[in-house]
Amino acid sequence: MAALRKESPNAGLIVIDLQNDFCPGGALAVAGGDEIVPLVNRLIGSFEHVVLTQDWHPAGHSSFASTHAGQAPFAAVQMAYGSQTLWPDHCVQGTPGAEFHRDLAWTKAELVIRKGFRKAIDSYSAFYENDRKTPTGLAGYLRERGLTKLALVGLATDFCVAYSALDAARLGFDTTVLLDACRAIDLNGSLATARRQMQLAGVSLGEAARLVA
């Protein structure tokens, strides 16, 4: 796998779910989630091509623990598409929690992919819903634009970032996760599992600080 070069015309930066509800004080806060914003902004300024994802759930989404009687957040239930972790209500469409972090320099983004808007299915990956079949359209967009090398950053390392990276690698993209520009939930060892899965899939694990030094 060739080294990622941010100035390459076929390189793109994908910023995953850097939204208020995933930052401290939010409904599903990731510890230190806001700490990565300055570094992500430096990356956004360095890459010619930038894509953002935005968790965008309708009220009463099926992944919310509140829609399952007797269930608490972070429990796992079986859905038609497999196991699903239940979450606190978060990133509800049109609410402040669903907005990008106020300090994120997001306006340079060429595309914003909204995910999780289908009420009956959750979506971690930037490329597919959690049924692993329903595409978001991102892969087609990237291919039409000639973007083959991807750097991923954002929240959370062990869920939406990792799922996106695994799909990107499976789809043939040269994929790097810049770990210092991510933060993890680490639910029952999920961070170590995600790192191992990414490495086995051929995803490079790098550092944004070196890339923008």
Labels describing this entry:
two-stranded antiparallel sheet, 5 helices, Rossmann fold, 8 strands, 213 residues, six-stranded parallel sheet, single chain, alpha/beta
Q: What is the N-to-C order of secondary-structure elements (H for helix, E for strand)? A: EHEEEEHEHEHEH
**Major sheet: size, sense and barrel closure?**
6 strands, parallel
Oligomeric status of the shown chains? single chain
Could you say which structural class the secondary elements and strand pairing correspond to? Answer: alpha/beta
Q: Can you tell me the CATH architecture?
A: 3-Layer(aba) Sandwich
- What's the average pLDDT? 95
Low-confidence stretches: none
Number of strands: 8
Q: Regarding CATH, which class?
A: Alpha Beta
Strand content: 15-25%
Helix content: 10-25%
Outline type: globular
Stated plainly, the CATH topology is called: Rossmann fold
Strand order of the largest sheet: 5-2-1-6-7-8
Number of domains: 1
* Termini separation: 22 Å
Note the total helix count.
Answer: 5
Radius of gyration using CA atoms only: 16 Å
Question: Concise description?
Answer:
The model has no long low-confidence stretch (mean pLDDT 95). With 213 residues, the protein is an alpha/beta fold. The two termini are 22 Å apart.
Blueprint of the fold:
Elements: E1 11-16, H1 37-46, E2 50-55, E3 76-79, E4 82-85, E5 111-115, H2 138-144, E6 149-155, H3 157-170, E7 174-183, H4 190-200, E8 204-206, H5 208-211
Parallel strand pairs: 1-2, 1-6, 2-5, 6-7, 7-8
Antiparallel strand pairs: 3-4
Helix pairs in contact: 3-4
GO molecular function: metal ion binding; nicotinamidase activity
Keywords: Hydrolase, Metal-binding, Pyridine nucleotide biosynthesis
InterPro entries: Isochorismatase-like_dom, Isochorismatase-like_sf, Isochorismatase_Nicotinamidase
